[in-house]
Amino acid sequence: TSVDSIGIVTARGLSIFGDTTGLNVTGVSTFTDNLTITGTAPKIIFTDTNNDSDYRIIVNDGAFKIQDTTNSNAVRLSINSAGNATFTGDVSIADKIIHAGDTNTAIRFPAADTITAETGGNERIRLTSTGLVGIGTDNPSHKLDISGDGVAFPNAAGSTLLRLRAVSTATLSIDAASNSISAIQFGDTDAASVGSILYNHTSNHLQFNTNADGEKLRIESSGNLKITTGTQYKGLNVCKADGGIVAELVGFASDNDEGGLSLWDGGSKKTQIVSNGYSYFNGGNVGINEASPTS
User: Fold this and answer.
1) CA nearest 109: which of 121, 124, 122, 97?
2) Would you say 110 and 117 are in contact if contact means Cβ atoms under 8 Å apart?
């Protein structure tokens, strides 16, 4: 049988069984107890008389679904028995998504084109409308801006992409295996690796490479400083502010195996001492055991 009603219906304990019976209501119905719908795929259909989209609620394939009957029963929302929900379109949220049972942890949308993540009731990460990411700061000024304590600092140079800041010590750690290398690599639009700084954890030396041409400077574990060209250690220059050489410690001969010291004055080399004996003094007086030589 069917129940057809026009007007107000008040029902208590109403059950409808089978596919050939139904409840058609036009107007207002009030159910003061359970409404049980039994079937292979039980459903409630909502028809809009204003010619807008029509919908139905259906239980099918072990899931609760809301379907758009105007568009071939397209599923708009599905919730399975495990409580997992699937939306086939956008989900609009006024402010935040909160973790169930942990209300001080959330993903928020505090302003237009802005996303934040909160834990313990405090903002931890912010993505701004211009694509800047702040960790520990709600006002990032670079592509990645990391602040240990949220304290404001003057802006770094405009080309800065990564900025680390803290009131006390700010540390950037690059960790590797004890028999490997920690490295910082520098590249450009022509080459991925033009220069680099490497720490060798096997020999415990710090190495500087430039011009895509291998090692140029090394600080050994003993503290010794070595400056190289290719595979040979070349020299160390002491320069004036304008770049002019004042003193030079350098290797001579084709394989740079002869040590030498050169001293400059006004852009001209005045003194050269070389381990192979090719040495000279060009200008000035020379004193041996004499602080003020006259000749």
Assistant:
1) 97
2) no
Residue among 236, 237, 245 nearest 218 (CA) = 236
Tokens of 125: 């990460």
Q: By three-state DSSP, how is residue 70 classified?
A: helix
Is 270 within 8 Å of 284 (Cβ atoms)? yes
Secondary structure of residue 82 in the 3-state scheme: coil
| Other residues' Cβ atoms within 10 Å of the Cβ of residue 186 | 14
Residues in the chain, how many?
295
What is the per-residue pLDDT across 2-23, written as a single tens digit (0 to 9) for each?
A: 666 666 666 666 666 655 556 6
Spatial separation of the C-alpha atoms in residues 76 and 66, rounded to whole Å: 6
> For 196-240, how does the pLDDT look when each residue is reduced to its tens digit (9 = 90+)?
999 999 999 999 998 888 888 888 888 877 776 555 555 677 777
pLDDT at 252 exceeding the cut of 80: no
Say if pTM beats, i.e. exceeds, 0.90.
no
C-beta neighbour count of 209 within 10 angstroms: 20
Tell me the CB-side half-sphere exposure of residue 79, using CA atoms within 13 A. 5
